[in-house]
């Protein structure tokens, strides 16, 4: 089960890096407005980060399995 989560996280992070690279390249070549897109991407990533921290707290502290 944990291996599947690690693989999914690795693929998700890889896709995120590729997406940000494409956005950065399009911004460098002035195809898109770089400032607006990067601001929205960074705000979105910050929101996802905060929600994942809250979920980690919930599962790590409140829903902890003490059957070891």
Report on the architecture of this protein.
- This protein is mainly α and 68 residues long.
- It is 82% helix and 0% strand.
- It has two helices and no strands.
- It has helices at residues 2-28, 34-62.
- The chain is elongated and about 55 Å long.
- It starts with a helix and ends in a 6-residue tail after the last helix.
- The mean pLDDT is 81.
Secondary structure blueprint with pairings:
Elements: H1 2-28, H2 34-62
Helix pairs in contact: 1-2
Features:
single chain, mainly alpha, 82% helix
Taken as a percent bin, the fraction of beta residues is under 5%
Question: End-to-end distance, in Å?
Answer: 17 Å
Task: Indicate the structural class.
Answer: mainly alpha
What's the total count of β strands? Answer: 0
Tell me about the largest β-sheet: none
Number of helices: 2
Chain-averaged pLDDT: 81
- Helix proportion: over 70%
Query: Radius of gyration in whole Å, from Cα?
Result: 17 Å
Low-confidence stretches: none
The H-and-E topology, N to C, reads as: HH
Overall spatial form: elongated
């Amino acid at each position: 089960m944990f291996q599947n989560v690690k693989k999914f996280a690795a693929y998700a992070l890889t896709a995120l890096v590729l997406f940000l690279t494409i956005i950065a390249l399009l911004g460098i070549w002035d195809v898109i407005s770089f400032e607006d897109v990067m601001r929205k991407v960074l705000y979105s990533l910050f929101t996802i980060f905060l929600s994942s921290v809250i979920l980690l707290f919930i599962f790590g502290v409140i829903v902890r399995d003490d059957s070891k």
